[in-house]
Design goal:
The protein has 266 residues and is α+β, with helices and mostly antiparallel strands. The chain has 2 domains: 114 residues, no CATH class; 139 residues, no CATH class. 22% of the residues lie in helices and 31% in strands. Helix 1 runs antiparallel to helix 2. The longest helix has 33 residues.
Amino acid sequence: MVRSLWTGASGMIGQQNNIDTISNNLANVNTSGYKKVRADFEDLIYQTVRTAGTPATEDTVVPVGVQMGHGVKLADTQRIFSQGSLQDTGVPTDMAIAGDGFFRVQLQDGSYAYTRNGAFKVDETGRMVTSEGYWVLPDIVMPENFLPESITVSKDGRVGVKVPEINPDEPIPVGQIELYRFPNPVGLTALGENLFKVTSASGDPIPGRPNELGMGQIIHRTLEMSNVSVVREMVDLIVAQRAYEFNSRTIQTSDNMLGTATSLKR
């Protein structure tokens, strides 16, 4: 069978994966803390028809070999952890990380997950949680009768709030935000819900306070938006679409060649 049929098919499959990745980026263009994903490809194994350096005569060797490729495959989908733009929201429980680091949250099974999305809330017990109700760690619990609009978060992660019965003029401290960074953040596994989980590839989390020892600083009443560039994704989408068409054309050409061969015998 003509090799180009399978080579073209592998190219179409690869570009379909590429378009799937781009579409997910575009779908999350307004997702707070989302980090874009890039599809990386690598060529498949080659059939070596003739090896370079093979003796041609007693005194000479073949200078260039003959290798026939078998197409392409998806190597990995790498997440790009560049800084997203910061958007002022005015919400007292919103916070963004300007720089390196992740917030830590506790899932329902007791395990830990990490996120760049600082759209936090305060539940009925006064505890700071994510939109899905996961606890923000270390625990930050608001006292009774606190004023929600008086929540303050400093650049180094100190959380305070005003309680009229205690001190109506000055906020009292209620907790300290900690951040975590990783030796290889692209090795984290995405769980959905803007959450990531540690793997052996990411390395162990390194804790630290915001604005210290390489950690980013906390920007209060602000959210980090997605780092997806719509213009760049649309250009990549056009390129992927054309590449898909080119690979389909190689299959059509190979089919026409086979049709020509079968029509030789009348």
